[in-house]
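Hi! If you just cloned this repository, the fastest way to understand the data is to look at a raw example. We've pasted two of them here, unedited. The first protein comes first, obviously.
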Amino acid sequence: MRENITINSRKLDNSIRRSWQCELVEETFAYWLFAGNFASEIRHSELGVIRRGTISYEYYFKDKWFNIFRFHEPEGDLKFYYCNINMPPIFKNNVVDYVDLDIDILVQNDFSFKILDEDEFKFNSQKFAYSKELKLNVNKSIKDLTDLIERRQFPFDGNLQQ
């Protein structure tokens, strides 16, 4: 039986921004893969409608400054990928904590993509006094992610196996 895991998306001041439940599907030397299910419909200005029953496969990389969510419609079809720029996660006592650094990348199922929330990053970089090193890691992570998308490398390689 899979264990129920709590995921906490935090701000730099450690306050919880969002929290949800997932199940651990796989652990490798490089990442954890979790699966979650939307219990209710969500309407989002950039993402549109995320229907009740949508499944989210969530890749949390142990030493990278991003995570990647792969959203599937309740019927199983790939909806899109959603990538968060964040500090590397901590997984302890059935809880994943990560610090979200605002910038996101929305990747459509044709692999076109759009960088989101750069204005929020600028605002919070002042509010929370993001260090130069942190900003460098964010910029490197954006480049690393866009390279993975453009080259169709894991998990953007078209292999939709869990």
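Ok, and the second one:
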Amino acid sequence: MEITVAKSAGFCFGVQRAVDMVYAQTSNEDVYTYGPIIHNEQVVSDLERQGVRVLHSKEELLQLPKGTVIIRSHGVAKDIYDLIEDKGLHLVDATCPFVRKIHHIVWEESGKGRQILIIGNQHHPEVEGIMGWCQTKPVVIQDASQIDKLEF
């Protein structure tokens, strides 16, 4: 049997950055991530053992009297940022810079009245976050077969 070792392994840049940002906050009290920071149960469990709690909904966020809220690597909708700011909570934005760039693009382009088409699973956190930066109603499709059904 031949074993080939990959040139590199581990998390992509954006995920590694997000994980490092959360670990940097573990010495603080009342630290939360909005959604699991990444899709990795072992990392999320380790962070929970260190006191980082996961918020799963806007309702849970509304209940916080104080603390640090870390935005997941997938990003979140604009209204979550606004809510964190309005509540006076400390915000740490661990959104992948590439995802954040998409948020800026859809915000700007939808602000010009352009239709935004997103290809992905509308229930995936990253797509939900992108949708939440659209100022017009976005269209989300998951596969090429849906293209013929689009009406612009």
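That's it. A detail worth noticing about the second one: Strands lie at 31-34, 53-55, 68-71, 90-93, 117-119, 139-141.
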